[in-house]
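In the previous chapter we treated chains in isolation. Here, by contrast, the input contains four separate entities that must be folded as one system, with a combined length of 636 residues.
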Amino acid sequence: MKHVLVIYYSRTGHTQEMANAIAQGAQLAGAQADCRSVYDVDIAQLVNYDAIILGSPSYYGSMAADVKKFLDSTISLHGKLRGKVGGAFCSSARVSGGNETTLLSILHAFLVHGMILTGGTPTYPYGPVAIHAPNDDATREECLAYGRMIAELAAKLSP
Amino acid sequence: MKHVLVIYYSRTGHTQEMANAIAQGAQLAGAQADCRSVYDVDIAQLVNYDAIILGSPSYYGSMAADVKKFLDSTISLHGKLRGKVGGAFCSSARVSGGNETTLLSILHAFLVHGMILTGGTPTYPYGPVAIHAPNDDATREECLAYGRMIAELAAKLSP
Amino acid sequence: MKHVLVIYYSRTGHTQEMANAIAQGAQLAGAQADCRSVYDVDIAQLVNYDAIILGSPSYYGSMAADVKKFLDSTISLHGKLRGKVGGAFCSSARVSGGNETTLLSILHAFLVHGMILTGGTPTYPYGPVAIHAPNDDATREECLAYGRMIAELAAKLSP
Amino acid sequence: MKHVLVIYYSRTGHTQEMANAIAQGAQLAGAQADCRSVYDVDIAQLVNYDAIILGSPSYYGSMAADVKKFLDSTISLHGKLRGKVGGAFCSSARVSGGNETTLLSILHAFLVHGMILTGGTPTYPYGPVAIHAPNDDATREECLAYGRMIAELAAKLSP
């Protein structure tokens, strides 16, 4: 059984809702999925996961400062995340106000860690994006599909 | 009077409609604005413009090949576009399917040319994006506003 | 045995040299590796490969127009590359003149295809970059290591 | 007289050295230039500057968390930086280990603020990058030239 960690930073609850749906999607693919606020992640535990999916609202075109603080702190286990699967998701107030660059700021960090990425769904190739509230069915379906894809990739990599 | 050139590549007509609205916005700011297909641009004429705004549909996360071909051909006047204003716009089939990375692929090229960029409207900080057809009023207003901003910046730079 | 295709666009021979070293690295990992100019790729054959690694010089901050033309033409088999491994490499005249954005312009396209990416070596996390000529030993080692990583990932994904 | 603010985050002193050279370049162009650590910036004072140049080491492919924290805090004066000139610089341990994406993470934020950007020098079109220590003459010259360019652009925009 694969272990997937979904980490979110959420002030309005939107990013957290996305995180829950992504974790649920991973479970549908047979993985055990934990869902944690960025403040509740024990860095030392990251090595126990097969996949790490990180979500942030879009603040000035990249991840929120507290999400970056978390990522910068993973330097303590640099090299130990190599080969794990990474994913990103983003909530945004606007259709094209920096959500892709926010997703990519997370994916770049995972590439520096030597992690494995996958193109997302046809609608959201860099990862799911919710404009305003993510409580519509379409966004929820996208999050479920993405969580499933990440978990299936983790399973493929170490069956 | 400032001279603004809006260049587009359009297969469905959507990017061309955006180009027309952007050119009209530039005219509202007192500029003379020409609107040309990427196939109809005389590279040698580029030096006669104060601002160049380039639009493309989003193909695989960056500008269409024919737009890149045009940009690569501007090597013949490398250094001569320095200090001119640059802008980008994009039409896309999907909300977050590569439209920001497409805009940025154009803006990066303009930075390599030493050109001047401006943040766009609050809704589209990297440049206007039209999802599907741009014939709705909101997208048209965004394009008008962007054209106006670019023309006003060009006027400020060489009054 | 995994099949890896290394595709390059090279005017000075530098990108081709990198391609050869990357293909050799893939072979060291037990893969069969083909090395082709972007003009000699039969699009229909792409589906027969487990991994596709695409290299370009950095022209105005993204891949050369002829490389984009190749990528745009892969629309004819859209959906059929999903799950394959993708990689990128770049030759550049300058240390920081657009080589990362060039690599990323290729990686974005592979994400839109639904392909799998991996962080590169510690030195080149987005993919190997050669500044000027790649004939020094360090660059060659980086290319070998990258080819090996891509081939090993392809093998892991479908053992 | 134009006022330029150079802001840096520096743990090893490299980014600070770059900041000093950039500020000196701005002074050579006739501007008054202040140089401040990201911890010593009074957000409310930002509106008094004509140009803001922000530098960070490259941490996991984007600006350091403390730099992002500063940028996120500028939300309190959102809209009031529109039309000011922005610039970015970066120190990095490696030639191509995320320095361009770090510069761009800063430039994206400035675009969201509606600020004006300029392509840098031919060597560093997105902004100066120092690999390892920036105390060599070439890097220093690049920083001087960039500071001068930013100050000259600010002067052009409001003579």
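Residues 3-157 of chain D form a domain with the Rossmann fold fold (CATH 3.40.50.360). Strands of chain D lie at 3-8, 32-37, 51-57, 85-92, 116-118, 129-131. Compare these points with the single-chain example from earlier in the chapter.
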